[in-house]
């Protein structure tokens, strides 16, 4: 089991990462909450990881904090919630915000995440209720220190469009979200952050 990677950030194309660890390139998928704290390509990075083994592939997921990984692992244990939905949850809210949603039993907030219907939202609330306290304590103990966010490469709108599609949003919805979020000079990560905030409140 691979639990941790430390190396040079070779490529970051939300939601995908490529990390060079002593000459070996590890491909990972990561939530936007992790992307917001990544350094620039070429710099050193350290991520917690989770390896998902399927019949057709081994997929490695990366997380900037241990609390993100704990929440991801708790979510994928719930019936009807796979890694893609779990990444969507972490991309749309911080661990603390998600736990507050669970405590408030706000199913409507969860249904705004692609792939989550009313029944799945209610199941998440029921099954996460007992874990919320443990996850909250773990998040508080771990702290939230992060590396500063990096400037994005060229074509942030194109990169943001691809990232939102990968998170499960439909092209017309992505176009609407990016149009509402766009402003001159925004980086890819900031554009995605604003688009996700718009999706969560619309």
Question: Mind explaining what this structure looks like?
Answer:
This protein folds into 3 domains: about 5-65, OB fold (Dihydrolipoamide Acetyltransferase, E2P), CATH 2.40.50; about 65-140, DNA polymerase, domain 1 (Orthogonal Bundle), CATH 1.10.150; about 155-200, Ubiquitin-associated (UBA) domain (Helicase, Ruva Protein, domain 3), CATH 1.10.8.10. The protein is built from 9 helices and 5 strands, in the order βββαββαααααααα. It has helices spanning about 30-35, 65-75, 85-90, 95-105, 105-110, 120-140, 155-165, 170-180, 190-200; strands at about 5-15, 15-20, 25-30, 45-55, 60-65. The chain has a 5-stranded antiparallel sheet with strand order 3-2-1-4-5. The protein starts with a strand and ends with a helix.
Count the E strands: 5
* Biggest sheet, spatial arrangement of strands: 3-2-1-4-5
**Counting H and I runs of at least 4 residues, what is the number of helices?**
9
What portion of the residues fall into strands of 2 or more residues?
Answer: 15-25%
Contiguous low-pLDDT stretches (5 residues minimum) are 144-154
Radius of gyration: 16 Å
Distance between the termini: 40 Å
Structural class estimated from helices and strands = alpha+beta
Write the CATH homologous superfamily of the largest domain: 5' to 3' exonuclease, C-terminal subdomain
CATH topology name of the largest domain, in short, is DNA polymerase, domain 1
- Large-scale geometry: globular
What is the level-2 CATH architecture name of the largest domain?
Orthogonal Bundle
Tally of discrete structural domains: 3
């Amino acid at each position: 089991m691979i639990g941790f990677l430390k190396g040079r950030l070779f490529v970051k194309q939300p939601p995908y990462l490529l990390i060079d660890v002593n000459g070996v390139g590890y491909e990972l998928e990561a939530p936007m909450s992790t992307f917001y704290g990544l350094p620039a390509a070429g710099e050193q990075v350290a991520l917690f990881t989770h390896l998902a083994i399927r019949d057709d592939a081994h997929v490695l997921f990366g997380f900037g904090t241990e609390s993100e990984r704990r929440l991801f692992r708790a979510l994928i244990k719930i019936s009807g919630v796979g890694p893609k939905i779990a990444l969507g949850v972490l991309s749309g809210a911080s661990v603390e915000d998600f736990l507050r949603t669970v405590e408030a039993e706000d199913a409507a907030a969860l249904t705004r995440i692609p792939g989550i219907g009313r029944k799945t939202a209610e199941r998440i609330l029921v099954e996460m209720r007992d874990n919320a306290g443990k996850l909250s304590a773990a998040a508080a103990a771990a702290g939230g220190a992060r590396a500063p966010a990096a400037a994005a490469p060229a074509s942030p709108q194109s990169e943001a469009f691809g990232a939102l599609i990968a998170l499960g949003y439909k092209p017309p919805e992505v176009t609407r979200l990016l149009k509402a979020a766009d402003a001159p000079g925004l980086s890819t990560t900031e554009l995605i952050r604003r688009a996700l905030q718009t999706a969560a409140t619309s």
